[in-house]
Amino acid sequence: MPAPTPLPTIPRSRRFSLPPVMQGTACEGCGALPAADLLAEMLGPKMAVICPASCAATFSLSYTNASWKVPFVHWIFESAPAAATGLRHAYDARGMRDVHVVCFAGDSGTLDIGFQALSGAASRNENILYVCYDNEVAMNTQGQATSSSPVRARTPTTPSGVPTLKKDAPRIMAAHGIPYVATAAVSHLADYRAKLRRAARVRGFRYLHVLSPCPIAWGYPYEQTIEVTRAAVETGMWMLYEIDHGRMKLTYRPRRRRPVKEYVALQRRFAHLSPREVQSMQRHVDEGWRTVR
Amino acid sequence: MKELRFHGRRLPRYDHTAAFVGAAHLLARAALREGKQVQLRPPWLFLRGYTPEATHLRVASEPIETYSQEYVLDLVAVTDASILGAVDVTAGLKDTGILLVNSAKPVTLSGRARVAVADFGAIAKRYAVDLALPIAAAAAALSGVVSQTALAETVGPEAPGASRRQSLRALEAGGDAVASSRR
Amino acid sequence: MDRVELLTGNEAAARAVRLSKPQVIPTYPITPQSPMLASIAGDVAAGVLKAEFLNMESDYAAMAAAVGASLGGARVFTATNSQGLLFMAEHLYTASGSRCPIVMAVVNRAISVPHSRYADHNDALAVSRAGWMQLFCEDAQEILETTIQLFKICEDPRVRLPAMLCYESFIHSNTAEGVVVPAAAAVDQFLGQPRVEALLDPAAPRALNPPTPPEWYTEFKFAEQQAMETALRVIPEVGAAYAGAFGTRPRGLIETAQPGGRCVLASMGSIVKTARRAIRELQAERLSVSLLKVRTYRPFPAAAIREALTGAEVIVAVDRNSASGSHGVLYDEIRSALYGMPDPPRVVGVIAGLGGRDVTVRQIKEITRRALKREPPFDRNDEPIEWLGLDRGRVRDESPQARPLARTG
Question: B50 and A216: CB-CB below 8 Å?
């Protein structure tokens, strides 16, 4: 059985690469890889990355090798933004104001165990870029539900489906009054690139939330990561927008939103849904888009 | 006490149902059926990607009084022949130990007297069963770690109806495939 | 009817949880405890276990919820290790001080930095002063039996303290063995209804945890101490009752094997199992070696250990833990237990298995022979301690770090 070829959509970055020796640490079709790759490309080389326990931490370094060619620390799960605060102020005190301090974290470390630190740093409007890559589960421990898991998704700790709605992280972060919030998706890399470029130029707490599917957790063949992500965007399940100094702007609007059932049908984590439940999801998405112009 | 190791790759299924785990699991359950003691160690790390991994199995009639990961192996099974180039599968294998390889093509390994090769993939396909079944049967036949009867009695109840017949035939075929390699 | 099933340590604990019927299970995942949570969640979803399974937002939230639930009168179970256990440290004292009979599985794992997912005992031992009982299991069978027993021990009105059921990351948690599983009805009969006092109950309102003046604080701590000392009796009592009810061998504070040896190997956890084989092989070489398994670490069974070690010449305390600036806990606490004995045995120390390093039969035999022959460092009177298998070429006097590869992808 031949070894599979890497996803062709992962751009070659000078500042992040998954060398062959580390290919036991990221799964084929990992949606977080492009998120990390572009982040390094757009913000490096003058950046330091604080990455709490997550799949990203696991593919970022082994005992001997690192994927990032910029300073990187594998941090404690709950306190990345607090550590980033300290590092930011150290750099400022030492006159290194042009070095970006970046947190790169999964949804679990951002919205559950790390939420206190995230809100704290945002409340202080720390001059930090925070990128949450969202695979909608705690995948480093093999896929338990998080507050970012979509309603009705099956996970090992919610075998009957997640009972609650996905936490609206970008809007919560915007409510902190921070200068820049944006959503992104690994299927729309030009859009993500533009947002990273914009974020790099803003001072204060900047929050990016990147939809980064996981083939294992979501239950689809690993070659389909980009297709599944695109379906999330094209069905309207995932909106691409930015909130720049309080002003919200859609950066991509599907010409005609595809039915949600097409997105659901691609993923085994939704295989148990009844048609009524899918309709309910459709209604919820429609509601969300009604209020957006 | 007998010690066995099973090499394989987790892809395409990212879980513990790959044959290099399944075969060992089956042998362990069959051994319990015979009133033996077992210690089954599937791969510990959730290694992503296509990395070769291994499952270890100890089977004994008396209590297994060690958790050490130093093994002196009676049998090493390789469920994916492409691993032969990537990993030293004979590390820890006794001089009298057997190397069992799933391969459609002949396999040569210099310095190894006892190598049993068979196309278990074809057997599994023929009977529409998991690759783990014929490999487990072959490993049992070569190492003597459990009887074919115990294997059949373990597999049988789990596979109802027609698939049960197929499963038992697959076991038989797996054992027969290495009949010439048995001492 | 008892059945022998192929279960990992995690599955054995999850099965014991199913049988013990806790009512509230607050959880937060951490490697390698997460498959146990998935197993329990599956039982709850399938209706096989009626319990409130809570997906909390962090480990300390899980312990806060555990105490909240216990104060509400529920039987509670949770699980964690390493980073999660330390994140819960504050709330561990809340649990013990509030006298909550919570049972928690701790899948012993090394603590970052350096980062490791593998086994050593430093996590549980870091919080050994938090007022929780701590029992260390040797194998999957013991994990199952001890979990069930702990509910009975913790809820005993003479005890009312929380307990940690300790077993090792990957070595126990992910390794499968044949486990005899008792029948549900028999466990129901053994455990009975939960005996958890609802301290927050409108029927009898109380205001918990008032600011406690110096004139009162000490006596609360004394009461906890007394409860721990009572546990020294209750643990073997419950072990014997379990043996009587299920026909198993009785488990207590310690175990010994091949007693009466000149040299005694003392340890906890999986190393005990490997030491059993080492001792058999040494005995075949006509060396006089015994085994001391410390099952109950808190409360520390000093009297039982003194009795077991009387007459020995040298004790080799094999510690799967370390604390820079200090010693392994068994080395220190066994020495303390022996203090004041006329003609006490010498105690030497071995630090082994940190960060999941394998401890082999051959290594144990070698250090035992050297201890018996008083070879260095075991000939010293001060600090006769060896770091097993230390590779001096790998010692790095710095924060652990990886280097980016020079060439790109």
Answer: no
Q: What is the pLDDT of residues A44-78, one digit of tens each?
A: 889 999 999 999 998 888 887 788 888 889 999 99
Statement: residue C319 has pLDDT above 90: yes
Cβ atoms of C267 and C318 closer than 8 Å: yes
Asked whether the beta carbons of C108 and C167 are under 8 A apart, the reply is yes
- Identify the closest residue of chain B to C172 by CA–CA distance: B67
CATH code, domain with A276: 3.40.50.970
User: In whole angstroms, what is the distance from residue A84 CA to residue A86 CA?
Assistant: 5
The pLDDT of residue C245 is: 97
Option in C5, C176, C358 nearest B68 (CB): C358
Using a CB-CB cut-off of 8 Å, the residues of chain A touching C405 are: 17, 19, 21, 65-66
The residue extents of the domains of chain C are: 3-246, 255-391
Taking contacts as CB-CB distances below 8 angstroms, the residues of chain B near C141 are none
Instruction: Give the structural domain span for A75.
Output: 20-290
DSSP string covering chain A: -PPPPPPTTS---SSB---GGGTTSS-TT-THHHHHHHHHHHH-SSEEEEEESSHHHHHHB-SSEESBSS-EEEE-TT-HHHHHHHHHHHHHHTT-TTSEEEEEEEHHHHHTTTHHHHHHHHHTT-S-EEEEEE-SSBGGGT-B--TTSPTT--BTTBTT---SPPP-HHHHHHTTT-SEEEEEETT-HHHHHHHHHHHHH--S-EEEEEE---HHHHTS-GGGHHHHHHHHHHTTSS-EEEEETTEEEEEE--SSPPPHHHHHHT-GGGTT--HHHHHHHHHHHHHHHHT--
Number of domains in chain A: 1
A213 domain residue, yes or no = yes
Q: Which residue has the higher pLDDT, B115 or B47?
A: B115
A193, part of any domain: yes
A64/C115 CB distance under 8 A: no
CATH number of C255-391: 3.40.50.920
C-beta of residue C137 within 8 angstroms of C-beta of residue C77: no
- pLDDT > 90 in chain C, percent: 95
Contact C176 B69 (CB under 8 A): no
Q: How confident is the model at residue B166, as a pLDDT?
A: 94
**Closest chain C CA to residue B40:** C176
> Which one of A1, A23, A25 has the shortest CB-CB distance to B80?
A1
Residues of C with CB under 8 A from a CB of B: 4-6, 32, 117, 170-171, 174-178, 270-271, 273-274, 276-277, 280, 358-362
- Asked whether the beta carbons of residue C112 and residue A76 sit closer than 8 angstroms, the reply is yes
Predicted pLDDT of residue A5: 41
Matching CATH number, C3-246, of 3.40.50.970, 3.30.40.10, 3.40.50.300, 3.30.110.70: 3.40.50.970
pTM of the full predicted structure?
0.92
Mean of the pLDDT values across residues A213-238?
A: 95
pLDDT in tens, A16-37: 776 655 666 788 889 999 999 9
* Beta-carbon separation of B48 and A26 below 8 A: yes
Confidence of residue B156 (pLDDT cuts 50, 70, 90): confident
Flag if B29 and C6 touch (Cβ within 8 Å): yes
Q: Mutate which of B9, B13, B16, B48 to test chain A, going by most A C-beta atoms within 10 A?
A: B48
Domain enclosing residue B65, as ranges: 2-179
Classify residue A10: in a domain, yes or no.
no
Q: Are A4 and B14 within 8 A, CB to CB?
A: no
Shortest distance between the Cα of B84 and any Cα of chain C, in A, equals: 25
* Confidence check: pLDDT of A2 > 60: no
Residues of A in contact with B119 (CB under 8 A): none
Identify all chain B residues contacting C268, using CB atoms and an 8 Å cutoff: none
